[in-house]
Amino acid sequence: xxxxxxxxxxxxxxxxxxxxxxxxxxxxxxxxxxxxxxxxxxxxxxxxxxxxxxxxxxxxxxxxxxxxxxxxxxxxxxxxx
Length: 81
What we know:
- By secondary structure, the protein is mostly helical.
- The protein is built from three helices and no strands.
- The longest helix has 24 residues.
- The mean pLDDT is 87.
């Protein structure tokens, strides 16, 4: 997914005449971010359940989903050249 987004942004940059290079994170960075998102997301979900703030639970759910996406993206790093 990161590769496709970078390609689309590169085409846009070429069209606009901008020379900006987007980062391509390494597998270790993606795994670290996935773990951080999972821990923080689970904490926010727990806070949302314990306290009357449902927005915490919603943000926590988004964090957990983000963790799953980052984990999947890190697995795909093996197959890329």
